[in-house]
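DM from R.C. (forwarded with permission)

"hey, sorry to bug you on a friday — could you get me a structure for this? deadline for the figure draft is monday and I only need the backbone to look sensible"
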Amino acid sequence: MNIKPIKTEQDYNKTLKRIEILMGSNPRSKKFDELNILTILVEAYEEVHYKIDPIEAIKLKMEQEGLKQKDLISIFGSASKVSEVLNKKRKLTLNMIRNLHRDLKIPFERLFRDYDLKCV
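My reply, with the result:
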């Protein structure tokens, strides 16, 4: 395991390819440890270079996990709230943020960022 900081876009892309290779590693293996470390490095790089708002973070997680809006009803409380939040017509509440962190493992730091609502 030869892990280095991600300093350039080329490093970033190379690290993403390595993560893809390591996906599905046995959780008790050194490859899984490498996967965890590389994921942390990618998140740190993205935090600086690809600032995404909380709603984009939720949508990205939904895409990664193959989730639909209906899958978030238990997190948001109702189908209408899911739709309103994802369409930036309603702000996330503290309870929604807790649920997103707990159920989807989205880091708090990404969920507490400010974002603008779309005007109706």
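R.C.: lifesaver. Residues 9-49 form one domain.
me: no worries. Helices lie at 9-22, 30-49, 54-65, 73-76, 79-86, 94-104, 108-111.
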